[in-house]
Amino acid sequence: MMDAGFFSRASGYGWMLSIIALAPCAMAAESPLICFGNEPSWGLHLTEPGVARLQTPDEPGVDYQGGETRLDVIRERIWRGKPTTGQGGDLVAFLSDAACSDGMSDTVHPVTARVSLGDGRFLAGCCRVVAAATGSAVAAAPPAASIEGPIWRLVELRGLAPSALAGGEQPATARFRGGRIDGFSGCNRFFGGYTLEGDRVVIGQMAGSMMMCPEPAMTLEHAVTSGLAGTFRYTVTGDRLILREGDEPILTFQAEPPPRLEGVTWEVTGFNNGRQAVVSTLAGTALSLTFKDGAVSGTAGCNTFHAPYTATADSIVVGLAAVTRRACLGEGVAEQEQQFLAALQSATTWTFEGGMLDMHRADGERVLTASPRAE
User: Fold this and answer.
1) How many CB atoms lie within 10 A of CB 273?
2) Are 39 and 100 within one domain?
3) Which residue, 255, 285, 313, sits at the end of a domain?
């Protein structure tokens, strides 16, 4: 028979276990992390206290506000936050102090991540520590002249003739952000994952759209997709990025000027006709865009239009357009107008590549391309 002392001791142990298992831990100082994964490619920045930014291939970046609790007994943290827009469910990231392989290199990262999203998606991957709590770097953050952030325009590629590099309608580009690389390879958009370790960048397998383009765009595309994969040493000097194998330069990029929507009249060079094709404007018509003070306006080939919009560094939301009611003469002009305005309102991301405005939908399909009008 168990004595009363046993129950007293057991009660004490149960009380202690309840505290460990059920009570929320005190808020701890958040260690800055960059988490990432593949299949699908995703990135989660936990580099600012109380803020997380999630990036996935099928949607623009989503910002969350929240914080973490820590359970030291099992060496795990849980970061939970709500979208800053107030729409959508919570993001919950389970961050374990356990060795993690990114599956693309021999690098072993110190944190394993499991991320649950409000729509039911579940993501798995690794995290690199940007800086330890003491301020000393475990995996050093990118320097001021960083591979991450700028849009890099390809200016040299080993084995590719300069004429092939310069022959496309748009230059090949790449951008590195939070473990995700994306860009334009001469004909199609691409995206994939990468990791940074010291002066090395490891770029994994790419995915993207699969349109066919006339030469020399396809030659450029094949060279870029073949060359931009593997492990490279990188250096950033001024506005130049060089990726090397050993000491041999493989790809050389130049940083594009920071993008801006406003202050420019954009002449549309191609738009999505709603049938998974980007087409040129009809002969004798012009499509244009001007962004100013939260409104986008312009010509739709026949009528003028005006619509509200909001934009961040790379995302955009365009509202319903008000359109004049002029009768549109000419075969296909009215249909072009409807297709163009529908395409514009479907845009979720924008970027500025090779002097061109390039806008896309959430599924990665291109919405339109436009060039600045010469003043």
Assistant:
1) 16
2) yes
3) 255
Report pLDDT digits (tens) over 179-200.
888 888 888 888 888 998 888 9
What are the tens digits of pLDDT across the range 248-262?
999 999 998 776 788
Give the CA count within 13 Å in the CB-facing half-sphere of 54: 25
Residue-number span of the structural domain to which 240 is assigned? 151-255
Q: Which helix (H) or strand (E) holds 312?
A: none
Which pLDDT value is given to residue 60?
59
Spacing of C-alpha 75 from chain mean position: 30
DSSP class of 339: H
- SS3 category, 180: strand
219's enclosing H/E stretch is helix 217-227
219 in a domain, yes or no?
yes
CA–CA separation, 46 and 24 (whole Å): 20
- 88-132 residue pLDDT tens: 889 999 998 887 876 655 566 788 899 998 888 888 888 877 643
- Closest to 254 in 3D by CA, of 143, 157, 144: 157
At 317 the pLDDT is: 93
Nearest to 166 by CA among 186, 187, 182: 186
Place of tokens 């593949």: 38
* Cα–Cα distance, 11 to 143 (Å, whole number): 54
CA separation, residue 39 to residues 54, 103, 205 (Å): 15, 11, 10
Point out which residues pair with 54 in neighbouring strands.
44, 62
Residue 316 placed within a domain: yes
For residue 37, give the nearest of 57, 67, 59 by alpha carbon. Answer: 57
Whole-prediction pTM: 0.44
CA distances from 67 to 30, 75, 113, 125, 135 (A): 8, 17, 16, 20, 20
**Token pair belonging to 280:** 């040129």
Length of the chain: 375
Sign, CA torsion 20/22/25/30: positive
Q: Is 111 helix (H, G, I), strand (E, B) or coil?
A: strand
Tell me the pairing of strands 76-83 and 59-71.
antiparallel
Sign of CA dihedral 138, 195, 200, 48: negative
